[in-house]
Design goal:
Order of helices and strands: HHHHHHHHHHH
Strand content: under 5%
Number of helices: 11
Structural class: mainly alpha
Radius of gyration: 19 Å
Helix content: 55-70%
Shape: elongated
Protein backbone atom coordinates (compact mmCIF):
# COMPACT_ATOMS: atom_id res chain seq x y z
CA UNK A 1 0.00 0.00 0.00
CA UNK A 2 2.90 2.36 0.73
CA UNK A 3 4.04 2.17 -2.94
CA UNK A 4 0.60 3.19 -4.32
CA UNK A 5 -1.14 6.52 -4.54
CA UNK A 6 -3.33 7.35 -1.51
CA UNK A 7 -6.62 6.40 -3.19
CA UNK A 8 -5.32 2.98 -4.20
CA UNK A 9 -3.78 2.47 -0.77
CA UNK A 10 -7.11 3.30 0.87
CA UNK A 11 -8.84 0.68 -1.26
CA UNK A 12 -6.19 -1.85 -0.27
CA UNK A 13 -6.68 -1.03 3.40
CA UNK A 14 -10.45 -1.31 3.07
CA UNK A 15 -10.00 -4.81 1.67
CA UNK A 16 -7.59 -5.71 4.48
CA UNK A 17 -10.06 -4.42 7.07
CA UNK A 18 -12.85 -6.51 5.54
CA UNK A 19 -10.67 -9.62 5.65
CA UNK A 20 -9.61 -8.95 9.25
CA UNK A 21 -13.23 -8.48 10.31
CA UNK A 22 -14.08 -12.08 9.43
CA UNK A 23 -10.88 -13.57 10.84
CA UNK A 24 -10.82 -13.78 14.63
CA UNK A 25 -7.02 -14.06 14.70
CA UNK A 26 -6.67 -10.82 12.70
CA UNK A 27 -9.34 -8.78 14.46
CA UNK A 28 -6.80 -7.08 16.72
CA UNK A 29 -5.14 -5.58 13.64
CA UNK A 30 -8.25 -3.62 12.64
CA UNK A 31 -7.58 -0.46 14.73
CA UNK A 32 -4.06 -0.15 13.29
CA UNK A 33 -5.41 -0.60 9.78
CA UNK A 34 -8.08 2.03 10.39
CA UNK A 35 -5.46 4.41 11.74
CA UNK A 36 -3.38 3.92 8.60
CA UNK A 37 -6.47 4.58 6.49
CA UNK A 38 -7.21 7.75 8.46
CA UNK A 39 -3.70 9.06 7.84
CA UNK A 40 -4.16 8.50 4.11
CA UNK A 41 -7.53 10.22 4.18
CA UNK A 42 -5.84 13.21 5.80
CA UNK A 43 -3.30 13.25 2.97
CA UNK A 44 -6.06 13.75 0.43
CA UNK A 45 -7.87 16.35 2.51
CA UNK A 46 -10.73 14.22 3.81
CA UNK A 47 -10.46 15.13 7.48
CA UNK A 48 -14.14 14.39 8.18
CA UNK A 49 -13.83 10.83 6.87
CA UNK A 50 -10.50 10.43 8.65
CA UNK A 51 -12.09 11.39 11.98
CA UNK A 52 -14.98 8.97 11.39
CA UNK A 53 -12.42 6.23 10.71
CA UNK A 54 -10.56 7.00 13.94
CA UNK A 55 -13.77 7.13 15.99
CA UNK A 56 -14.75 3.74 14.62
CA UNK A 57 -11.33 2.38 15.53
CA UNK A 58 -11.65 3.78 19.05
CA UNK A 59 -14.84 1.77 19.52
CA UNK A 60 -12.67 -1.35 19.29
CA UNK A 61 -9.59 0.06 20.99
CA UNK A 62 -10.62 2.86 23.39
CA UNK A 63 -7.27 2.87 25.17
CA UNK A 64 -5.09 3.21 22.06
CA UNK A 65 -2.99 6.35 22.62
CA UNK A 66 -2.00 6.65 18.95
CA UNK A 67 -5.65 6.70 17.90
CA UNK A 68 -6.39 9.42 20.45
CA UNK A 69 -3.40 11.42 19.20
CA UNK A 70 -4.61 11.26 15.60
CA UNK A 71 -8.10 12.27 16.72
CA UNK A 72 -6.66 15.20 18.64
CA UNK A 73 -4.63 16.31 15.62
CA UNK A 74 -7.65 16.17 13.30
CA UNK A 75 -9.93 18.01 15.70
CA UNK A 76 -7.31 20.65 16.36
CA UNK A 77 -6.87 21.32 12.64
CA UNK A 78 -10.66 21.71 12.40
CA UNK A 79 -10.64 24.26 15.22
CA UNK A 80 -12.41 22.00 17.71
CA UNK A 81 -9.85 22.58 20.45
CA UNK A 82 -11.91 21.41 23.42
CA UNK A 83 -12.72 18.09 21.75
CA UNK A 84 -9.10 17.76 20.66
CA UNK A 85 -7.97 18.33 24.23
CA UNK A 86 -10.24 15.55 25.48
CA UNK A 87 -8.55 13.03 23.19
CA UNK A 88 -5.07 14.35 23.95
CA UNK A 89 -5.67 14.04 27.69
CA UNK A 90 -6.94 10.48 27.30
CA UNK A 91 -3.81 9.53 25.39
CA UNK A 92 -1.55 11.25 27.90
CA UNK A 93 -3.36 9.83 30.91
CA UNK A 94 -3.34 6.27 29.63
CA UNK A 95 0.20 6.07 28.29
CA UNK A 96 2.13 9.35 28.66
CA UNK A 97 4.09 8.64 25.50
CA UNK A 98 5.96 11.74 24.40
CA UNK A 99 3.72 12.46 21.39
CA UNK A 100 0.55 12.16 23.46
CA UNK A 101 2.01 14.20 26.29
CA UNK A 102 3.22 16.95 23.96
CA UNK A 103 -0.15 17.18 22.23
CA UNK A 104 -1.95 17.37 25.58
CA UNK A 105 0.41 20.03 26.95
CA UNK A 106 0.29 22.16 23.82
CA UNK A 107 -3.50 22.04 23.54
CA UNK A 108 -3.95 22.82 27.23
CA UNK A 109 -1.64 25.83 26.86
CA UNK A 110 -3.51 26.95 23.73
CA UNK A 111 -6.73 26.96 25.77
CA UNK A 112 -4.96 29.14 28.37
CA UNK A 113 -5.09 26.45 31.06
CA UNK A 114 -1.53 27.19 32.08
CA UNK A 115 -1.41 25.49 35.47
CA UNK A 116 -2.86 22.26 34.12
CA UNK A 117 -0.45 22.43 31.17
CA UNK A 118 2.51 22.73 33.54
CA UNK A 119 1.29 19.78 35.57
CA UNK A 120 1.05 17.65 32.44
CA UNK A 121 4.48 18.79 31.25
CA UNK A 122 6.03 17.74 34.56
CA UNK A 123 4.80 14.14 34.30
CA UNK A 124 7.36 11.55 33.12
CA UNK A 125 6.81 9.98 29.71
CA UNK A 126 6.67 6.20 29.43
CA UNK A 127 9.39 6.12 26.77
CA UNK A 128 11.73 8.48 28.67
CA UNK A 129 11.03 8.28 32.42
CA UNK A 130 14.35 9.83 33.46
CA UNK A 131 14.65 12.55 30.81
CA UNK A 132 11.91 14.46 28.99
CA UNK A 133 11.66 14.38 25.23
CA UNK A 134 13.06 17.57 23.62
CA UNK A 135 9.59 18.68 22.56
CA UNK A 136 8.35 18.40 26.15
CA UNK A 137 11.34 20.47 27.31
CA UNK A 138 10.50 23.09 24.67
CA UNK A 139 6.93 23.25 25.93
CA UNK A 140 8.18 23.54 29.51
CA UNK A 141 10.31 26.48 28.41
CA UNK A 142 7.34 28.21 26.78
CA UNK A 143 5.21 27.67 29.86
CA UNK A 144 7.92 28.96 32.18
CA UNK A 145 8.30 32.09 30.09
CA UNK A 146 4.52 32.56 30.07
CA UNK A 147 4.79 32.64 33.86
CA UNK A 148 7.66 35.13 33.79
CA UNK A 149 10.26 32.58 34.90
CA UNK A 150 13.11 33.48 32.55
CA UNK A 151 15.78 31.35 34.22
CA UNK A 152 13.62 28.25 34.21
CA UNK A 153 12.65 28.91 30.61
CA UNK A 154 16.27 29.24 29.51
CA UNK A 155 17.20 26.02 31.30
CA UNK A 156 14.34 24.08 29.76
CA UNK A 157 15.24 25.38 26.29
CA UNK A 158 18.84 24.38 26.89
CA UNK A 159 17.68 20.90 27.87
CA UNK A 160 15.64 20.63 24.68
CA UNK A 161 18.54 21.63 22.45
CA UNK A 162 21.11 19.51 24.31
CA UNK A 163 19.49 16.14 23.59
CA UNK A 164 21.08 14.28 20.68
CA UNK A 165 20.91 10.80 19.25
CA UNK A 166 24.25 10.04 20.90
CA UNK A 167 22.84 10.97 24.31
CA UNK A 168 19.83 8.69 24.01
CA UNK A 169 18.96 5.45 22.22
CA UNK A 170 17.06 5.83 18.97
CA UNK A 171 14.04 4.13 20.47
CA UNK A 172 13.80 6.90 23.05
CA UNK A 173 13.62 9.55 20.34
CA UNK A 174 11.10 8.24 17.82
CA UNK A 175 10.80 11.69 16.21
CA UNK A 176 14.53 12.20 15.94
CA UNK A 177 16.98 14.46 17.79
CA UNK A 178 16.62 18.05 18.84
CA UNK A 179 17.21 19.09 15.24
CA UNK A 180 13.68 17.81 14.57
CA UNK A 181 12.18 20.42 16.91
CA UNK A 182 10.04 23.12 15.25
CA UNK A 183 12.61 25.81 14.38
CA UNK A 184 10.05 28.62 14.31
CA UNK A 185 9.06 27.94 17.91
CA UNK A 186 12.68 27.76 19.01
CA UNK A 187 13.45 31.11 17.36
CA UNK A 188 10.32 32.67 18.84
CA UNK A 189 11.25 31.45 22.31
CA UNK A 190 14.85 32.68 21.94
CA UNK A 191 13.54 36.06 20.78
CA UNK A 192 11.20 36.31 23.76
CA UNK A 193 14.01 35.46 26.16
CA UNK A 194 16.29 38.00 24.48
CA UNK A 195 13.61 40.68 24.73
CA UNK A 196 13.11 39.91 28.42
CA UNK A 197 16.81 40.69 28.90
CA UNK A 198 16.25 44.09 27.28
CA UNK A 199 18.09 43.42 24.02
CA UNK A 200 15.21 44.33 21.71
CA UNK A 201 17.29 44.76 18.56
CA UNK A 202 18.67 41.25 18.87
CA UNK A 203 15.17 39.92 19.58
CA UNK A 204 13.83 41.51 16.39
CA UNK A 205 16.66 39.94 14.39
CA UNK A 206 15.69 36.51 15.72
CA UNK A 207 12.14 37.05 14.54
Amino acid sequence: AAMCDPHTAIQTLDHAIELAAVDVTSALEIPALQRAKAELLLEIGQSHNALACIEHALCNAPGDSELHCVAARILRSDGRLADALTHAHKAAKDHMEHSAAAEAVDLTRTLLQFEQARQLASLPCACRPSQPHPLISLLRAELALDAGEEIEAAQALSNALAVTIEDSPASALPDGPASALPSARILALQARLTARRGDYEAAVELF
